[in-house]
């Protein structure tokens, strides 16, 4: 399955990151899409670094 989410997860894992489905106290970063909802609110409350899609693409060095 080659969805944008799967491609993002592969890029994160390739660079040593760990991808999870849930936000917890151990979460350090959240890749926030356009429909982040309650996960975004929880990550903000926990003080996680929020990375928007356009920032993520720039971090990867994509045009």
Keywords:
single chain, 63 residues, alpha+beta, Rossmann fold, two-stranded parallel ribbon, 3 helices, 2 strands, 46% helix, globular
Sequence-ordered SSE layout with sheet pairings:
Layout: H1 4-14, E1 29-32, H2 37-46, E2 49-52, H3 53-60
Parallel strand pairs: 1-2
What would you note in describing this structure?
The protein has 63 residues and is of the alpha+beta class. It has a single domain (4-60), classed as BRCT domain (Rossmann fold, 3-Layer(aba) Sandwich), CATH 3.40.50. 46% of the residues lie in helices and 13% in strands. It is built from three helices and two strands. Strands 1-2 form a two-stranded parallel ribbon. Helix 2 (37-46) links the parallel strand 1 (29-32) and strand 2. The mean pLDDT is 91.
Task: Quickly describe the structure.
The chain has 63 residues and is of the alpha+beta class. It is 46% helix and 13% strand.
Mean pLDDT: 91
Count of separate DSSP helical elements: 3
String of helices and strands: HEHEH
**End-to-end CA span:** 24 Å
The major beta sheet can be summarized as: 2 strands, parallel
CATH architecture: 3-Layer(aba) Sandwich
Kindly identify the CATH topology: Rossmann fold
At the fourth level of CATH, the homologous superfamily is BRCT domain
Q: Give the class-level CATH name.
A: Alpha Beta
General form: globular
Beta strands, count: 2
Spatially, the strands of the biggest sheet line up as 1-2
């Amino acid at each position: 399955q080659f969805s944008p989410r799967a491609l993002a997860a592969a890029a994160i894992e390739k660079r040593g990151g760990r991808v999870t489905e849930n936000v917890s106290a151990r979460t350090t970063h959240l890749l926030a899409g356009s429909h982040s909802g309650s996960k975004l609110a929880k990550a903000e409350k926990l003080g996680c670094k929020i990375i928007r899609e356009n920032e993520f693409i720039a971090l990867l060095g994509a045009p």
